Amino acid sequence: MQKITLLINCPDRKGIVTTITQFILERQGNIVYLDQHVDRQEGIFFMRVESEFDQEDFSIADFEMQFIAQFVDDYQLTYQLFDAYYKPRLALFVSKYDHCLYDLLGRYASGELPVEIPLIISNHPDLEIVAKRFEIPFKYIPVTKATKAEAEAEQITAIKEHQIDLIVLARYMQIISDEFVAQFKNKIINIHHSFLPAFIGAKPYHAAFERGVKIIGATSHYVTADLDEGPIIEQEIVRVSHVHSVQDFILKGRDLEKIVLARAIKAHVEHKVLVFGNKTVIFS
């Protein structure tokens, strides 16, 4: 049994669903999931399809070539095709905060995240002990203003050597250069706090406490050249009040960061995220 996931977007027109599902049926495929959306304002059609094929001679490469020939030009169609059984390879980037790292490695060890994690990269040596507990290679690459370019070159080399599919900034406290981001478009996921109003700086939870906010939250998004403005994948909030201390804010915020980052990664590796412009379509 082989299973593929197909993500599609194209200008909206009548008959797209029928034509594509018929194409799959003609190749003896069984559709086990289909979700679609039409952006009326932009006139764009989006679809996610999971299909199973039980014939021994089924070839994903042949399927893709035939799909391209029939649809891409005629429908002005953009697509992504995935082997649904392939486990993406993640590189976790960390600094000194360990809450997201522990959470992701725990989910990984329990089988909750359908991924492989062959590499952890950090600009500090502090979390190497965590990597050792989970028997994952840890690469310490210090970063300073003077050595940033060399450090990123070393990171990229390690990423390519380990055939990494997705980079996760699990509270990595460094700004990634535009050149680095450009090499991994929509393949770097970040997590950060998000407040209403927003607070920046080294102690955002302290600032939020002093301002008396009533909601704190977290946002996970793809990294782009515009700092913290990439396409949003997942968000969550929790209410707080005058009875909560700064430490309560911090603990609640860290819980949100863990949950939101894990959800974002899971959506990405299950191919439920379709990026269009600076927005995302998140399929159920």
Shape: globular
Q: Flag low-confidence runs.
A: none
Q: What percentage of the residues does DSSP assign to strands (E)?
A: 25-35%
The helix-strand sequence is EHEEHEEHEHEHEHEHEEHEE
Summarize the structure in words:
The chain is of the alpha/beta class and 284 residues long. It has helices at 16-26, 60-72, 99-110, 128-133, 148-161, 178-183, 204-211, 246-269, and strands spanning 2-11, 30-39, 44-53, 78-83, 89-94, 116-122, 138-140, 166-169, 188-193, 215-222, 232-239, 273-276, 279-282. The strands form three sheets. A seven-stranded mixed sheet has the order 7-6-5-8-9-10-11, with helices on both faces. Strands 2-3-1-4 form a four-stranded antiparallel sheet, covered by helices on one side. Helix 3 links the parallel strand 5 (89-94) and strand 6. Helix 7 (204-211) packs across helix 8 (246-269). The longest helix has 24 residues, at 246-269. It is globular, with a radius of gyration of 21 Å. The two termini are 24 Å apart.
Give a quick set of tags describing it:
single chain; 284 residues; alpha/beta; 8 helices; 33% helix
Short summary of the structure?
With 284 residues, the protein is an alpha/beta fold.
Secondary structure topology:
Elements: E1 2-11, H1 16-26, E2 30-39, E3 44-53, H2 60-72, E4 78-83, E5 89-94, H3 99-110, E6 116-122, H4 128-133, E7 138-140, H5 148-161, E8 166-169, H6 178-183, E9 188-193, H7 204-211, E10 215-222, E11 232-239, H8 246-269, E12 273-276, E13 279-282
Parallel strand pairs: 5-6, 5-8, 6-7, 8-9
Antiparallel strand pairs: 1-3, 1-4, 2-3, 9-10, 10-11, 12-13
